[in-house]
Amino acid sequence: MCGIIGYIGPKKSLPIILDGLKRMEYRGYDSAGVALMEDERLQVIKKQGKLEVLKGALKNQKTTASLGLGHIRWATHGAPSNINAHPHTDCHNQVAIVHNGIIENYQDLKDWLQNQGHRFKTETDSEILAHLIGHFHKTENLAVAVSQALKKIRGAYGLAVISQKEPNKIIVARLGSPVVLGIGKKERMVASDVTAILPLTKNVIFLEEGEMAILTKAGHKIISLDGQETDRQPQQIDWDIAKAEKGGYDHFMLKEIMEAPETVQISLRGRAILTAGKVVLGGLLDVMDQLAQAKRLIIVACGTAHYAGRIAEYIIENLVGLPVEVEYASEFRYREEPLDPQTIVLAISQSGETADTLAAIRLANQQKNLTLGIVNTVGSSIARETTAGIYNHIGPEIAVASTKAFISQLVIVTLLAILLGQQRKLTTEQARAILMELDRLPEKIKTILEQKDQIAEIAKKYYQADDFIFIGRKLNYPIALEGALKMKEISYIHAEGYPAGELKHGPLALIDETWPVVAIVSQDSVYEKTLSNLQEVKARKGKIIAIATAGDQKISSLADQTIFIPKTLELLSPILTVIPLQLLAYYVAKLRGCPIDQPRNLAKSVTVE
Fold first, then answer.
1. Distance from chain centroid for Cα 73
2. At what angle do helices 452-462 and 573-591 cross, to 10 degrees?
3. In angstroms, rounded to a whole number, what is the distance separating the alpha carbons of residues 236 and 204?
4. Which of 100, 140, 392, 599 could form a disulfide with 376 if both were Cys (CB 3.0 to 4.6 A apart)?
């Protein structure tokens, strides 16, 4: 996720823009830049790296520009570099834009613009917007040019635009990416995050989907893409700046858990064609024939990503009929694994830099196997060294404990399974049913997140426990492992995850009245068997926290506390069942006073062996 800011008013814009970018650094970024309008002349300065690099390039800049834009970029299309950094300009350097989001039809638009004589300088999809707006701006005013350009865009945008031809205004627009206007006295600001503008004003207007705004020193106007004006009064934000940096949440982890509905939407966007019952994964187009001929899939990953792989094993074998093995990347590289030519190796990694996973991919490459990646970081080592792959595109995940990246990984492996399944045995009707239910998940996730206060109360009962056991069956066995990992890594409580059927093969000896047992007992094909396992726990006086399906009438006689999740397809249930476990670990850790976002001894990206 990137950060944008713009200012127009009586003050010097550059210090305001740099301060706003500084306040959005927590979002993560790889480059930064500014566009300044002074004496009706546009100047763009941008640099790869942290803000200090950009500030170094600006140290001799003696500007009094009262209009400007700023941007910090987290790479999606195009690797981090000076040239790929924002702002972007059109061919004549008359229009400058800063953009958050993804332009899904950028290649078609780029081809069209090149045929019109436009020449591109970067590898980004965002540059398309600068050229498209510049194209229409030849004959139209800036607001109309932006509107006409956006009508041709398919994707998401939080956008701010300035032009030498109209040097006293900023045009902004929003679709799928947040944009907030700051309303000051004879000054206006725009940002992707309210934290960037709080030092200047607490009076803000949040743009709605599909809206544009025209900002001048004298005021602002909110309009639709068709020019219909909307009157909306500012609201006052009472956040303090420190809290606003985390979106009002105490920790990045909680913020990222709460972003789960958006995470699912982003992971599906442009990939799930609901009415056609079809999946489009552009990063795999060149290897579809090899995928059709594959006889085995090996998934390599570490930590939370490994558990995503274990769930993928169930889903892919079910929908595709392709044998799947899931390996800890840290062990795979030391095995004498026979890799025949029709074996595919898939790496899952949020950072794309996990050392052991990267080593496993290099081993597979040496043996000439097709390698794939599911990574969140564009231009990362795994993204570069795999033959093909899929980006999460969910923006940076700041907390060390992975939450939203795990959700995205589950969505993407399901899309991959549908794509491969339709090559082999999955019908269009079956695919459509799964895709339609995936599309419903954001609203279902919201009903779980609404129970966070209830989950916090449950945490109060158990935060002083010395041990936890998490149990589940089938697809929710890996979720039990993930729930235990979350509890361990942020609360420092010993926790173990088990297949529910394994309790009687040893772990049941541990159970007494002091042991909390977190049981995932959704109403699925193994529901009755899991209930039997809970009877075993109850007979030993264990305390049961159940994650159960809404409407379950049997669970109350067994569980001490129950968190209900909405009904969904069994294959998709892990996307819902993991969220209460993330919240439970979070609130337990908070009550214990642990440093939740940066737990001891752990790093966000494990880049050493």
1. 15
2. 50
3. 6
4. 392
pLDDT tens-digit readout, 479-537: 999 999 999 999 999 999 999 988 889 988 888 888 899 999 999 999 999 999 999 99
Strand partners, 184: 187
3 state SS of 257: helix
Pick from 166, 151, 207, 21: which is nearest to 98 by CA?
A: 21
- Is CATH 3.60.20.10 correct for 3-244? yes
Q: Cα–Cα distance between 479 and 146 in angstroms, integer?
A: 46
> What is the distance between the alpha carbons of residues 569 and 281, in angstroms, rounded to a whole number?
22
- C-alpha 151/C-alpha 128 separation (Å) is 13
- Which tokens sit at 488? 């361990």
Closest Cα partner for 63 from 21, 20, 11, 98?
Answer: 11
Q: Cα dist. 541→137, 226, 508, 511 in Å?
A: 73, 65, 11, 7
Catalytic residue numbers read: 2, 604
Tell me, yes or no, if the two domains 3-244 and 451-591 fold the same way: no
Instruction: Quote the CA–CA distance of 501 and 514 in Å, as a whole number.
Output: 21
Report which of residues 74 and 466 the model is more confident about. 466
CA distances in angstroms from 552 to 163, 517, 573, listed in the order given: 60, 19, 15
DSSP 190: E
The answer to whether domain 451-591 has CATH 3.40.710.10 is: no
What fold characterizes domain 254-442?
Rossmann fold (3.40.50)
Cα–Cα distance between 537 and 531 in angstroms, integer? Answer: 10
- Report the C-alpha gap between 228 and 443 in whole angstroms: 30
Amino acid at 186: K
pTM beyond 0.85, yes or no: no
**Tokens 């440093």, located at residue:** 595
CA dist., res. 199 & res. 256, Å (int): 25
Q: What is the pLDDT of residues 205-256, one digit of tens each?
A: 988 878 999 999 989 999 988 888 998 889 887 666 655 567 778 999 999 9
User: Pick from 2, 73, 59, 71: which is nearest to 31 by CA?
Assistant: 73
pLDDT band per the 50, 70, 90 thresholds, residue 395: confident
The C-alpha atoms of residue 393 and residue 296 are separated, in whole angstroms, by 27
User: Which amino acid is located at 225 in the chain?
Assistant: L
> Closest Cα to residue 508, out of 538, 530, 548?
538
Indicate the domain borders of the chain: 3-244, 254-442, 451-591
